[in-house]
Each structure stands twice: as structure tokens, then as C-alpha cells.
Amino acid sequence: MSQPRRTPRRRVWTALTLPAVLCVLAACSGGPGEDAAAPAPSVSPSPSGPPGTLFDSFHYSGPDDPALAAHGWEVRTGGGGPGIKDSWSADGAGFPSDATAQGGRVLRLQSSTDGTMQGTRQVEVQGTGKNLFTGTYAARVHFSDRPTSGRNGDHVVQTFFPISPSDDSAEYSELDFEYLPNGGWGTAGPRLDNVSWYKADPPDRVNHTLKQRLEGWHTLMITAMDGKVSYSLDGKEVFSSSGKYVPREKMDVHFSNWFIDTPAAGGPRAWEMKVNWVYYKADEAVSPADVQKTVDGFYSAGTDYVNTVPKA
């Protein structure tokens, strides 16, 4: 059974520092000998590339990097839920080197708690374009089964999901990958929940739970085409929905790492989720093999970022 609907987000976002007219974009056509992380001199809205494509390998210096906002991302620092309300912090977002990642760089989302509301910090990074609808969504994500420090046992949720800009929308849409290594809401873990939503409040959704330990890197894919949504894990379909449980309006991609509740105090601990890359292809059902082939091509060309999706 799917988890209860998360507390409405009441999204309050703090804008990141972005000097006027500054738009730092990575060049799509750079060859292997060029510095892929160097900013392009162009002030065009996006580099050239395949039409209807979003790709990002998260080569940023930190949450206050102007290129992060210029490329359509925000780090949440406002109030609201889900999880422990009003505990969102940009401190948990980073972009370190990682030898286990393709291209050697990741988005790291590190949440922390000491078992109290005051000592809890959650982290979420979201897109801001409000222009992703039908097509193929994919991300390479590293799930954690235990904290990087401190005792185990927290009810943590590690997520990748496209969602409507507003929970109150009449055409509300949300498509979830949620990994709960220790379970939550009275259920045991580990578990991977896939949930397709029709309405947020009162909750109206369909779901599937895979009871499997998933620590490590995985390619997560959501294909929303022709009145059907399919979820796949490492190339294998695990769930599908249809009927009214399909996207009805344009969405943004979110990555978040949050706590369902605050269990008993037991000293500070930190939980880490990592994202290697994210990919979206508008209005096409792309196979897992072709997604990886396209991503490999971007890395081979030294391309860190592409966005040719039409604006909302």
C-alpha cells in the first residue's frame, strides 16, 4: 500500500544569488580536449543540442554557483513539508568529485538529524522551468542503506520525481521514485515505492512497492507516453499506470532526501543521496539502452549541460 500523502509542500523557495544578465552555460560542442567545466562566453538561453532534450551532469561549484540558477535549478531553503517542516537547508547540497560516478562528478544531497526537529536538516533540489510533460525522464541515482555517520534506523526517504509546480493545481501531476531503506509509516524497509498521482488532497494515486535492498548506483526511468506511465529500474519495468494516473500538466524534476519523522535522539547522523546525471526527452519513449548511449555521447563530447526543451 502506498504511503500517506506527504504534507503539502507550501513551496517557499529562496532565490540563489544570480547577478543580473549573467547566464553561465556550458558549451555543447566542446571536444574531449576542452575544459568541460569552464563557462561558455555565450549568453544564449541554452547550448545547441538534440531538440527537446535536457541533460545535466551537475558540474557546479556549489549551491550558490550562478550557473546552477541559470541552468534552471533551485535549492530549497523555505518552509513546509514533507517530512520535518521548515527544516530545508542549502547546506546539504554539494557537487563533489566522485570516483564511482560517470564523469567523476555528482550532485550530493546530505540530510542530517540528531533526532530533534531543531537538529534536523533536509535537502531538496528542483527544476524551475515548469516545462516538462510527456516523454522520457531518467536519472542515475545512488541510494544509501545506512548513514555516512552516526547510528542507523532513521525513516529517511530518497527521491526522484517530476511534479506539478503547485499542489493545489486542478491538473495535479506527480510521478515518484521513493526509496525507504528503513521503511516508514508503520511499514518495514527496505522498499522502493513508485507512485502515480491524480490528486494531492485528498490523496488519489496508484502505487507499487518493490521490497528490495538497493544501496548503490541505479538508473531510474519514467516514460509517460500514449496514456501510460512506465517506471523502470536498471532497464527492467517495475510498475505502470494508465487511465487518470498519467501527467495532465507540465512539471519540474525534483531530487530530495528527507525524514518522515524524528525518532529517538541518539547523537547526530547524516544520510547521503547522490545524483550522477539527469536526462529528459520530450514526447518520445526512449529505451534504456538509447538513454545511456545518448548520455555516453554527451560525456564523450565534454558536454555538461544541454537544454533544448521549449520554454513553458
How is this structure best summarized?
It is globular, with a radius of gyration of 18 Å. It is mostly beta strands. The chain is 6% helix and 35% strand.
Please supply descriptive tags for the structure shown above.
312 residues, globular, 2 helices, 7-stranded antiparallel beta sheet
Task: Write structural notes for this entry.
- With 312 residues, this protein is mainly β.
- Helices cover 6% and strands 35% of the residues.
- The chain has 2 helices and 16 strands.
- Strands 1, 3, 4, 6, 11, 12, 13, 15 and 16 form a 9-stranded antiparallel sheet that branches. Strands 2-5-14-7-8-9-10 form a 7-stranded antiparallel sheet.
- The longest helix is centred in the C-terminal third of the chain and has 13 residues, at 288-300.
- Mean pLDDT is 87; it is low at 1-46.
Helix content: under 10%
First CA to last CA: what distance? 35 Å
Number of strands: 16
SS-derived structural category:
mainly beta
Write the layout of secondary structure elements.
Blueprint: E1 53-56, H1 66-70, E2 73-75, E3 93-94, E4 107-113, E5 123-127, E6 135-143, E7 156-163, E8 174-180, E9 191-199, E10 204-210, E11 216-225, E12 228-233, E13 236-242, E14 252-259, E15 269-282, H2 288-300, E16 305-307
Antiparallel strand pairs: 1-15, 1-16, 2-5, 3-4, 4-15, 5-14, 6-11, 6-15, 7-8, 7-14, 8-9, 9-10, 11-12, 12-13
